[in-house]
């Protein structure tokens, strides 16, 4: 029987120490699931196997923003103010499932925002709701000296202030073009797509001297595929099937404190 440590709170992985170094991981997880069902019937948990070697590595966490760090999609919040929310939502869903090229989908959605007054961004910033556990995660990782960055196919005008409010020092996203106080329906510069997200992960890791094996990428959609595959640990967070199939870890419970325990910050030591 493996040793089980942890308080079992929602969104927190229990740590399992196999009974022998050669124990089969799948067998341990199967046994733990059975034990959890027996001891806490009805409890919803995410079971995550974390290699002990991760504790010895410098670590870095990079997160997507829309539907990951926050509960909603900023482009849809803007679209609601332009009266095109349903149309934008359909394109967003298709892009996150990988059915539409992300860059094409972004240009199509932003074009529908043409003419919106720029001050609607203030309203959207006030409307954004961080995912449960986001502030706790950011604070715990910062306190442990783990660098954190956010990278988004959304908009820097919202992502930048959000990251600053959570104490996250690194942020990259698209910039909306504005003329005469109104959105033009275009973005400035290159689009932050899946490849750009992977580049951001690698650049940040190099900047902080973190090996690839110590990097953790967290996202929810097809636009996160490259970063999740490139990271030492790729995490699908309440994700679309296309990303869940590619990730090392699948979290179905919407609580970002799970990321804290995944990287070993605050995870209880087995005794």
From TrEMBL:
The keyword Calcium does not apply. SUPFAM superfamilies: HAD-like. Pathway: Amino-acid biosynthesis; L-serine biosynthesis; L-serine from 3-phospho-D-glycerate: step 3/3. It catalyses: O-phospho-D-serine + H2O = D-serine + phosphate; O-phospho-L-serine + H2O = L-serine + phosphate. One of its GO terms (molecular function) is L-phosphoserine phosphatase activity. One of its GO terms (biological process) is L-serine biosynthetic process. Its EC number is 3.1.3.3. Its cofactor is Mg(2+). The active site is at residues 64, 66. Keywords: Amino-acid biosynthesis, Hydrolase, Magnesium, Metal-binding, Serine biosynthesis. The keyword Metal-binding applies. It is an enzyme of class 3 (hydrolase). One of its GO terms (cellular component) is cytoplasm. Belongs to the HAD-like hydrolase superfamily. SerB family. This is phosphoserine phosphatase. It comes from Pseudokineococcus marinus. The gene is serB.
């Amino acid at each position: 029987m493996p040793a089980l440590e942890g308080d079992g709170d929602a969104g927190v992985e229990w740590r399992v120490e196999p009974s022998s170094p050669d124990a089969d991981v799948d067998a341990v997880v199967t046994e733990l699931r059975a034990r959890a069902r027996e001891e806490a019937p009805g409890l919803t948990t995410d079971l995550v196997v974390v290699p002990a070697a991760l504790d010895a590595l410098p670590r870095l966490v990079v997160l997507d923003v829309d539907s990951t760090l926050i509960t909603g999609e900023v482009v849809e919040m803007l679209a609601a103010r332009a009266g095109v929310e349903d149309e934008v939502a359909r394109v967003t869903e298709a892009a996150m499932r990988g059915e539409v090229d992300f860059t094409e989908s972004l240009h199509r959605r932003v074009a529908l925002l043409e003419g919106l007054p720029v001050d609607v961004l203030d309203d959207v910033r006030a409307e954004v709701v961080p995912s449960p556990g986001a502030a706790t995660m950011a604070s715990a990782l910062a306190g442990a000296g783990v660098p954190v960055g956010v990278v988004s196919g959304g908009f820097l005008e919202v992502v930048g202030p959000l990251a600053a409010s959570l104490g996250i020092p690194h942020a990259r996203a698209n910039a909306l073009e504005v003329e005469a106080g109104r959105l033009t329906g275009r973005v400035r510069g290159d689009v932050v797509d899946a490849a750009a997200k992977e580049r951001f992960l690698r650049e940040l890791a190099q900047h902080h001297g973190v090996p690839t094996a110590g990097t953790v990428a967290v996202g929810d959609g097809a636009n996160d595929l490259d970063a999740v595959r490139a990271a030492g640990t790729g995490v699908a967070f309440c994700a679309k099937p296309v990303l869940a199939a590619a990730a090392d870890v699948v979290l179905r419970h919407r609580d970002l404190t799970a990321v804290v325990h995944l990287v070993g910050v605050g995870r209880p030591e087995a005794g």
